[in-house]
Amino acid sequence: MFFRQCKDKLALDNYQIRSAQGIRKYWLIISFAHYMCVVGTGEVCPFETGYHKISDIIQIEKYLTLYQCARECNDFDSFVKVVA
Q: Residue 41 and residue 45: Cα distance in Å, rounded?
């Protein structure tokens, strides 16, 4: 189950690793991402539920950041400079 979820949602199958150290680092990152999806929302939940909750949180934070940047800028050019 863990490997299928990592392959489908965390792109485990799209990464090329060239060393044993790279394998360990990537395995740690994938394990942590999987763990965060299961317990990172403040409650223990199935991977799919946590993945969708965290994805929604990230999307809202992106919009909030853009909104805050837009509020602080006087014109479009200054907004582009802040965001880019």
A: 8
d(CA 84, CA 38): 33
Q: Is pTM, for the whole model, over 0.70?
A: no
Q: What SS3 class is residue 10?
A: coil
| Structural domain count of the chain | 1
Q: Which 8-state DSSP code applies to residue 13?
A: G
CA nearest 10: which of 43, 32, 40, 41?
32
Q: Is 41 helix (H, G, I), strand (E, B) or coil?
A: coil
Q: Which domain holds residue 16?
A: 2-83
Q: What is the pLDDT along the chain (84 residues), one digit of tens a residue?
A: 777 777 777 776 677 778 888 888 888 988 898 898 899 888 899 988 999 999 999 999 999 988 888 888 888 888 788 777
Radius of gyration of the chain (CA): 18
